[in-house]
Write a structure and sequence with these properties.
- This protein is α/β, with parallel strands linked by helices and about 300 residues long.
- The chain has two domains: about 240 residues, Putative cyclase (Glucose Oxidase, domain 1), CATH 3.50.30; about 30 residues, no CATH class.
- It has nine helices and 15 strands.
- The strands form four sheets. The chain has a nine-stranded mixed sheet with strand order 1-15-13-7-9-11-12-4-14.
- Strand 11, helix 8 and strand 12 form a beta-alpha-beta unit.
- Helix 7 runs parallel beside helix 8.
- The longest helix has 11 residues.
């Protein structure tokens, strides 16, 4: 790991907003909006539906059930005296906030007792969610997005599970795309693994290609505000030092660098069209105390 998280105080002890809160401003917003030339929008998110992959046992499935239906509510209101056949449909949804396309809050991972910004698990994790570092602290993210396509590095349509994506791989992808990570950017990595989301969930969950720790460190050193990928965890699974070291990219990005991770992205179409730079609009839902939330990032070109 890099320096211990309790020694990491780039933006001061007690900070809750991380890189996105400090590196995004009017300048980065206007620069991102200037990338829009055609007025086209590409949706980079999956539909969240029953059967979507999730990592048990910590994660739980998406379940939706009707709590009121139009026909039943019409009967109830008619008994109350309504004459206009007023029906309403309502539902109840149960899920972990890490199913489908979603963003991780900075309180999602710790290094031992230490969370990002000098917070601790004893003080910041409550019985009803996070007391500090919940997703409600993530600002609206409107910034330059870059998509690095590494899916063909091994001469196939996708990288294989357990294949680490290193710094040299990212630099090769940057050279091929003619882009480079810069202050305030959101960097999305296409490994090709997204093709198995909802088509072969067992394979999708059994492992994945993804960033190794040094690649994540390189990106955070470029002052990016979020890193995402078309897989379940952004980082390579199993890891390069598994099982002695587990989920080091999450620990570094979230607990040390204050950089959010976005998982289960849909990047095949943007790569098919050869779009490597765009205006990213991503507005996390302010679910107080949540360790993540579904998000719908869109690329404007």
């Amino acid at each position: 790991m890099t320096n211990c998280v309790h020694d990491h105080a780039r933006w001061g002890t007690g900070d809750q907003v991380g890189a996105a809160g400090h590196l995004l401003d009017a300048t980065t917003t206007l620069a991102a909006l200037s990338k829009v030339r055609e007025g086209r929008i590409l949706d980079l998110s999956h539909v969240i539906e029953m059967g979507a992959p999730y990592m048990a046992p910590n994660q739980t499935p998406y379940i939706i059930s009707s709590s009121a239906t139009a026909r039943n509510s019409m009967k109830i209101r008619a008994r109350m005296g309504a004459t206009n056949s007023v029906g309403a449909n309502l539902e109840r949804i149960e899920m972990t906030t890490h199913v489908g396309t979603h963003i991780d809050s900075l309180g999602h991972f710790s290094i031992g007792e230490h969370l990002y910004g000098g917070h601790s698990i004893d003080e910041s994790v409550g019985d009803w969610g996070l007391i500090d570092l919940g997703v409600e602290n993530i600002p609206p993210i409107i910034t330059r997005g870059i998509c690095l396509d590494v899916s063909g590095l091994d001469d196939g349509a996708h990288l294989e599970a357990g294949r680490p994506v290193g710094v040299d791989d990212l630099k090769r992808a940057c050279d091929a795309a003619g882009v480079a990570p810069a202050r305030g950017d959101a960097v999305f990595i296409n490994t090709g693994w997204g093709r198995f989301f909802m088509t072969d969930n067992s394979r999708y969950l059994a492992g994945e290609p993804g960033l190794d720790l040094e690649a994540a460190r390189w990106l955070t050193s470029c002052d990016v505000v979020t890193i995402g990928a078309d897989n379940m965890a952004v980082e390579v699974l199993p890891g390069t030092c598994h099982p002695e070291i587990m989920m080091p990219v999450h620990q570094h990005c979230l607990a040390e660098a204050g950089v959010h991770l976005v998982e289960n992205l849909v990047l095949d179409e943007i790569c098919r069209q050869g779009i490597h730079e765009f205006c990213l609009v991503m507005l996390p839902v302010k679910l107080k105390g949540a360790t993540g939330c579904p998000v719908r990032p869109v690329a404007m070109v």
